[in-house]
Specification:
Order of helices and strands of chain B: HHHHHHEEHHH
Oligomer: heterodimer
Strand content of chain B: under 5%
Largest sheet of chain A: 12 strands, mixed
Helix content of chain B: 55-70%
Strand content of chain A: 25-35%
CATH topology of the largest domain in chain A: outer membrane lipoprotein receptor (LolB), chain A
Strand order of the largest sheet of chain B: 1-2
Strand order of the largest sheet of chain A: 7-8-9-10-11-1-2-3-4-5-6-12
Helix content of chain A: 10-25%
Number of domains of chain A: 2
CATH superfamily of the largest domain in chain A: Lipoprotein localisation LolA/LolB/LppX
Largest sheet of chain B: 2 strands, antiparallel
Number of domains of chain B: 2
Shape of chain B: globular
Structural class of chain B: mainly alpha
Shape of chain A: globular
Number of strands of chain B: 2
Distance between the termini of chain A: 78 Å
Chain lengths: 387, 305
Amino acid sequence: MTRKWLRWVPAVAVPAMIAAGVLVGSLPASAGDPLPAKTPQQVLLMIAQHNEKSLSGTLEQTSDIGLPQLPKTGPGGVSSDAAWLELLTGPHTARVYLDGPDNARVQVLDKMAERNAVRRGNELWFYNSKDNTAAHTQLPAGAGDHHKAAAGPVPTPEDLAARLLATLDATTDVSVGTDVQVAGRAAYNLVLTPKSAVTLVDSIAISVDGTSGLPLGVELNARGQAEPAFKVAFTSLTLQAPDAAMFAFTPPAGATVTEIPAPERKANATPPSGTAPEAKGAKRPTVTGTGWESVLEFPAGAAAMPGTAAGQAPMPDPAAGNPAQADPALPGGPMTGAASLLEQAAVAVPGGRLISTSLVNVLILDDGRMFAGAVPLARLQAAAGLG
Amino acid sequence: MSSETPGASAAAPAADAPATPPGKPSGGPRAVRRTWGGGLFASELGVLFRRRRTWAMLGTLAAIPILIAVAVRVSSAVPAGRGPAFLDRITQNGLFVGVTAMLVSVPLFLPLTVGVVAGDTVAGEAGLGTLRYLLVAPAGRVRLLLVKYGGAAVFAVVAPLVVALVGAGIGASLFPVGPVTLLSGDAIGAGEALLRLLLIAAYLAVSLLGLSAIGLFMSTLTDVPVGAMASTVVLSVVSQVLDALPQLEWLHPWLFSHYWLDFADLLRQPVAWDSFATNAVLQAGYVAVFGALAYGRFVTKDVLS
């Protein structure tokens, strides 16, 4: 009898071993703080001074901001003009290759498809394998010195960190948390906590490579939500120049190639729509409040959903330097698809409709004015003069 | 696909196989046993691939790329972005027939055929009443289980290979073959593209190993082969349905079908090996768990038929 019982030992032991292995693997591998202690200023300096211009790595991005996830497959899949919205609602993986300031390639790995952005010198190519389309544009000479990597829809941590740090002021507590492991590297964990109680943002954590100072990941946490609302981080990283052939792109035979005229003012790669929010002049948003409590007000007629990008209110020009808008999928597509998708997510509140996410609230008044900010609804209503 | 023929002659009742190695007297019982195991495996393959059922299943799998190729050939051009991925590329490059056919056969056809073979392994012998004769020989149940699983695994390798090769063949004969555009937009030569095609077949073979192990375990549970086959196929469908439910996201990485469709990572430039490795680890886990379960069940089983 006992021998018969013994035969079942493997059937119990194997799952137990697997479970044990998974448990051990999921434990945070930090044995104390492996890196020398640094003050927030020193870590900020490391970021500012890092000079890693050549790398290849894989980025993972997840979002959980309370918007419904868009269907990814099937006939009801995301139309191309809503592609940027799709970036906010689901997980993505992207591979990034950088070689110096002038060569970059970003590959967004979709299911059975891939979106590519390749920059070599002043040549910029976009390629979308889903519909086999390519787009080419010539960057004006000298432009883009400061938008090095982020040619793709998934912003690199480097870009995000720089953007977030620009908003740092007296409104924020900056501290260095316990060290973390990102992409197998020991990293400092710079934590920004808003002092204001009237904001949806709980904290922002930036992981900074302990040896090179390269930002490895950014995590946005919303109040009252355990999972990060937005997270992008390297899962693998090599600080070496990738193969030069990576940056040589010729559109494949049979692909539809469109030529985008060289952008006059960069940032406005987003094509025709005359109603584009950054059309200047009277339609420039006004800001009320300061720091984390800022509320952006868009006058009537500008309701084409600007500035949802990182959910950061006090930014002078939300779309500027955000090449995500130049997604290969976009050229030629009006914003209607994305707008209608957002319409569906809106709920009626006193005075208008509210698009609510865990990081950003957008209030669209019945008269067309729009208020947006990382603040609760009541604050938006107060800013709109409804309270 | 020609690997099955050598086993044909060894398909005779396994009992007379031990007599074959007379030239190695010094090897002792161990050497005899090893040869016996090889003979048993060859005999298993011979039985498997001389079955009309096996050929019917392989023929059905081969019909998928042929159907796709002929349908694309006689119809007008497929607009880009419509239908299954890669379908619109076929007219430009025949090698995509193989990729499209594999993509189409992953959700049902491949699991179905593998489920039939794996579910039949032990229960089929029990159903025919031949299981106890196999166990009379001093090979032991563990060896028999390993041989049975080996046979199912060979089929799991052959099935996607048939789809890929038939697809490439029919594609090359009906459409032009040239440089293949990868998902990343880079183009590679036809030779390298064929290599990628074989890699995808290998990916699918690995993907099906976990299902084969599940089928083997199911097969030890019953004496009715149809029951084991059906439950294995149903499980593969259930796994894919669960994989489609966003509410069960925490469960997804543990489903054996979760990475089945990620073979597209082999069509990127450079190849993204992560999914291959993750998938292999996951399938190895399933093989270990269900192999252990099958062992526990089969070794303690009262074989009456």
